[in-house]
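Section 5: illustrative case.
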């Protein structure tokens, strides 16, 4: 198992927030000595300790765990297609970091195509922005929302019932989910 080297990132974030080691120790219930050693990469934290520190410093733990050196730019010609969860729905990823907390993707529907929502195990948020065409969005306990180019919608994933392409034009949209399916 490789050792985590997160000290300089933790020190930088603590300083950005104007917190002392004592304040972080109080927030995390970890010792000042341990935190000091951690900031100097003399010890490697457990995941539980790292989670407490990340919460105190208001940063996502995955950011500290990621040693990903992949290119942050996704060129249109190099987008990867993947299945969205177990839904059988294929989407085009707009990120090289699909395991991070935010997952943006591009999707097209043929005129008249329909998507019945698949129930999910955990709460998520979704945001959709329509590029071309028209879309009907059905959320539980609401009338259909009709979106056209430039329109967007933000909702809890658990409320989604269906997405439909309406009209004669291909529907093209960008969706962002957090956390990913």
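Designed sequence:
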């Amino acid at each position: 198992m490789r050792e985590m080297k997160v000290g300089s990132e933790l020190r930088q974030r603590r300083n950005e927030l104007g917190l002392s080691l004592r304040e972080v120790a109080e927030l995390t219930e970890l010792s000042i000595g341990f935190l000091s050693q951690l900031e100097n990469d003399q010890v490697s934290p457990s995941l539980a300790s790292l989670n407490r520190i990340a919460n105190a410093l208001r940063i996502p733990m995955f950011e500290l765990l990621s040693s990903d050196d992949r290119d942050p730019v996704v060129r249109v010609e190099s987008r990867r297609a993947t299945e969205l969860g177990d839904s059988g729905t294929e989407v085009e990823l707009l990120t090289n970091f699909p395991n991070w907390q935010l997952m943006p993707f591009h999707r097209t529907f043929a005129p008249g195509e329909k998507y019945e929502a698949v129930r999910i195990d955990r709460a998520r948020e979704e945001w959709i922005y329509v590029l071309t065409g028209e879309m009907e969005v059905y959320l539980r306990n609401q009338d259909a929302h009709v979106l056209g180019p430039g329109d967007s919608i933000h909702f809890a994933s658990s409320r989604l019932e269906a997405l439909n392409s309406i009209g004669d034009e291909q529907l093209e949209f960008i969706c962002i989910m957090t956390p990913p399916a």
